[in-house]
Amino acid sequence: MDMPQDDNEHLMSDSRSSTEVDDSYYPQKPRNWSRGWVLHLLILGINIGFGIFMLRASRTSIICPESTSQESLEFGKLRKHELVLTEPVIEYQDQVFISSGFHRHAHDEPSIYETPRTHETDKAWEKLTTVGFVSLTAEQNSQLANSTVESLSRPGTYPVALGVFHQLHCLNYIRILLFPQEGDGKGETDAQRAHHKNHCLDYLRQVVQCHGDTTPLSVYYEKTHSGYAFDHAVTHSCRNFDKIYDWAAENAADLHIE
Ligand SMILES: *[C@@H]1O[C@H](CO)[C@@H](O)[C@H](O)[C@H]1NC(C)=O
């Protein structure tokens, strides 16, 4: 109990010294009064100046992402190791998933990505995976947790692929294996296919677990089966994929990896 008393005493003596000013200590009171104001104005000026500086600093990092370093990226729209250059195109939106396969609402039309495999379906999937490579500068590359190699055809540039596009490639690879057609898998040996298949499946497992989506999936009572079923067409909070796709298309680097 000694400490709080000590503290109280301290506070009281502090406040006494600042409020109970003995006039006799300050014979030239008017001058002192104006000095106080000068000091106040000075502090106010410093505060405003600092405020403007902070505002400019935060604006710079949002509008000019190239001035924000990969290392300074901690919290915000992007996760720590995502490419800082993509921050301006990250936008969240409510998105109602389509049931895909288990269509029970008349308005819930099958998507172009669903089977049966047609020329149109294959083209739609292909389009998703034709972008994704972007070129970094040496400086940007040096900030990555895992740096990339210098381009052979364009020295001074450093190619990387954005995760989402490789993930879509893997999903498409599995789709083709599930619904095989004449002419699939050209240029791949059986051994290569076995590795590729394993890679894509387990890679996607890690992606799903990494994102850890905790959106509640509601259920409904399915009379025909006398049991509950998932209502897959619920609202999720999603990144606007079109914006990411357009950015990747505009910034596409000339590189292809199988
Ligand atoms: C990427 O960086 C992490 C952390 O330093 C490291 O553990 C991992 O082995 C690196 N991967 C490659 C392919 O170098």
Automatic annotation (TrEMBL):
Whose protein is this, by species? Cudoniella acicularis
Superkingdom, natural source: Eukaryota
UniProt keyword annotation of Transmembrane helix present: yes
Please cite one Gene Ontology biological process associated with this protein. mycotoxin biosynthetic process
| Key words of the record | Membrane, Transmembrane, Transmembrane helix
- Pathway, per UniProt? Mycotoxin biosynthesis
The entry's protein name is: Cyclochlorotine biosynthesis protein O
* Compositionally biased tracts (Basic and acidic residues): 7-19
Where does the chain cross the membrane? 37-55
Transmembrane helix keyword on record:
yes
Q: Which family does it belong to?
A: Belongs to the ustYa family.
Ranges for the region named Disordered are 1-26
